[in-house]
Amino acid sequence: MKSKLIITVSLFALLFVVKNSTNAQPWGFVKEKDGIKVYTRAESNSSLKSFKGDVIFRAAPEKVCAMLGNGVNTDWWDKAITNIKVLGFEENSFVEYYLVYTMPWPLTNRDLVAKTRIATDPVSGNHTFTAEPLPNTIPEKTNLVRIRNYRQTWTVQLMGNGNVHVSLEGFIDPGGNIPAWAYNMIVAETPLRALRSLRERVLSAKPASK
């Protein structure tokens, strides 16, 4: 059951994110695995923790951004996403999604509607992909739990010697009947799995879709 919950929580990390809170607690280092550093911190007014992960690897930032900001490039996402629809897309501007996630029994399946805004800082050149809920777009369904409370940001930064620094930061409340203690036990796996999957896809020989 624990392994299934790890996979489920990791799903929610692929799209969404982040606005930094001025009252946020400091990040606490959890672990480093496969070159990926992972952190968590207490979230104000919530029993759930937020997460952060970062990794440096050799790649062109354009290829990383193609994975994050193009609705076609979803083959590196978790297979438990049983339904994905791109509701809107404008290159280098935004992507709108509707997704359904299959949860392990006895949990109820989840769905969400999100808009990811894409931006490039003119000074630093950093690329950001900031996701947030997109309400009043698709009616809720009685057999699914709608995810409403989340935030997430992917940041892509060009480093020296052809390296790229990629970070993922976010908070997700899956809602429904997932206990906080179970979520907090595995939340560190969210950025670890997402960043590992992204890196593997970027470094694969298969060219990016357009």
How is this structure best described in words?
By secondary structure, this protein is of the alpha+beta class. It contains four helices and ten strands, in the order αβββαβββββββαα. It has helices spanning 2-11, 61-68, 180-186, 189-203, and strands spanning 28-33, 36-42, 49-58, 81-90, 94-101, 110-120, 127-133, 145-146, 149-158, 163-173. Strands 1, 2, 3, 4, 5, 6, 7, 8, 9 and 10 form a ten-stranded mixed sheet that branches. The model is unreliable at 13-22 (pLDDT under 50).
Search tags:
210 residues, alpha+beta, 4 helices, 10 strands
Question: Short description, anyone?
Answer:
This protein has about 210 residues and is of the alpha+beta class.
Compute the separation of the termini in Å.
38 Å
How would a textbook summarize the main sheet?
10 strands, mixed
Could you tell me the number of beta strands? 10
Total number of helices = 4
Order of helices and strands: HEEEHEEEEEEEHH
Assembly classification: single chain
Question: Shape from CA axes?
Answer: globular
> C-alpha Rg, in Å?
16 Å
Mean of the pLDDT scores?
Answer: 83
Helices and strands: which structural class? alpha+beta
Strand content: 35-45%
Q: Helicity range of the residues?
A: 10-25%
Q: Point out poorly predicted stretches.
A: 13-22
Protein topology:
Elements: H1 2-11, E1 28-33, E2 36-42, E3 49-58, H2 61-68, E4 81-90, E5 94-101, E6 110-120, E7 127-133, E8 145-146, E9 149-158, E10 163-173, H3 180-186, H4 189-203
Helix pairs in contact: 1-4
